[in-house]
Give the backbone structure.
Amino acid sequence: MSTEARPFLKWAGGKGQLLSQLDEHLPKDLQGQTFTYVEPFVGGGAMLFHMLRRFPNITHAVINDINPHLVTAYRVIKEQPNELIQRLRVLEQDYVAQSDEASKKDFFLDIRNIFNESQLDNVDRTKYLIFLNRTCFNGLYRVNAKGRFNVPFGRYLRPTICHANTILADSELLNRARVTILCGDFERTAEEIGDGPIFFYFDPPYRPLNATSSFNSYAKEDFNDAEQIRLRDFCARLGGHANVRWMLSNADCSAKNPADTFFEDIYADFHLHRVNASRAINANPEKRGKLTELLIKNYE
């Protein structure tokens, strides 16, 4: 189809803008062999869809996320894309038909409450997730300690909520590439290590650059420094398999505070690089702009 598979959600920390730089750091021999691709923190899927498009020699892909609603969305798009499109179109029409901003905000809050409180089938759960993503502030996904989605109204009066061609293209690619979809802790993906070449890409919740910049409330479980170290230990164990290579993205904390060498210290045995990025999501426009991120690998 004419539309390329790409993320079906806006996602904080999405890798769309970094794909060309990430490409430069991929193992050079991926194109010449069949391999398994594993992404334990799939998020919005920019890297996933890029890898599946670029490497048709991926014979199996495994994606995982701790967010159950996001995982449900991937499964629905893979298995029930047409039903999702039909329901999204009706919801979009109902939203656009609201007469003014105040009524649209009320509509949004009603949907947010349904999403948080109601027992829903998988298609409706995904329908409401996409709606909230397209109409909430900056497309954020954030939950409180009880796991309730709490992002405020975004004041978008005529957003495109149903991107039907994207949903169909994503569904086609997820099926063609034999993608296994998991929900849970990132360490579950180790069960997929087999005899052939495997490439892992990790994009975990970033360590905050300061006390106000964290998006770690993406899930009610906190991804703190102890979790970052547990992830490092997992990566180190993966390195014990000759057929496994991995690449990991995270915040460049020492660029903000030279005394904060957390990642340089815990990943001292691996290869660290810096890539240029942009911070597009911040309530204060003056705090958006260029910055660097770390890229860590277990190969040259």
Observations:
- The first strand starts at residue 35 and ends at 39.
